[in-house]
Amino acid sequence: MNVRQNMMSLSIIALLTVSFAQPSFAATTPFTDLTQSGAKDKILALQQQGVIKGVDDGKFAPDEKITAAQGVQLIVNAFDLSLAAIRFVKAPQATDFFSKADNDAWYAESLIIAAVNELELPADLDPNAEWTKEQFIHQLMRVMETKGNLPMIKLVPVEIQDNHELTVDYQGSIQRALSRGIIHLDKENKLHPQKAITREEAAEMIYHALAYLKNHKPLT
């Protein structure tokens, strides 16, 4: 479906977007379960900016794995993606884009926003499936580079010891993420691309991505 060919009244857009999460700068209670987290300061900074939220009662659950739906929502919120510039003939539903989605689920709005903002998400995306590190990195880089209108860069590929585990379509995104300092390899120069990504890892990548955009002016 070419979503940009559909037209919708501004009143419908308003109804759809009013409930979408936007960054909030209200005072918050710092997460209390980050004592052992090496990304504690970055996570708390994102919390204060309203970019990320906890799971409940001041808990961030840094070691918890994230699903595709949660990963999409993190990216949508972090980069303020919305439907503001899109018009449709009728209100879209998540199942218009993703066959396995639930139109009544908490993630439905985020999936719609992601789809119309042209994230490279498969039509058979399972919102409840755990996302791997390489899947999250690929989507994060796509949105970051588009949002920041970043220039192409000449890469000297970094040697990744577990490069054989990478999905071919994600290799470029991962190399660019390494070059821009969004991600780092471990002490053995491994990425562990097929490992399910944790909330801590995702938050730290988002922190680096937003910091990079802040320090690099977009192309004009």
UniProtKB/TrEMBL annotation:
Transit peptide keyword on record: no
Q: What is the lineage of its organism?
A: Bacteria, Bacillati, Bacillota, Bacilli, Bacillales
Q: Which InterPro entries match?
A: SLH_dom
Which part of the chain is the SLH domain? 26-89, 157-220
The superkingdom listed in its UniProt entry is: Bacteria
Keywords (A to Z) from UniProt: Signal
What protein name applies here? S-layer homology domain-containing protein
* Record's keyword annotation contains Signal: yes
Transmembrane regions: none
Q: Which Pfam families match?
A: SLH
Q: Tell me the leader sequence span.
A: 1-26
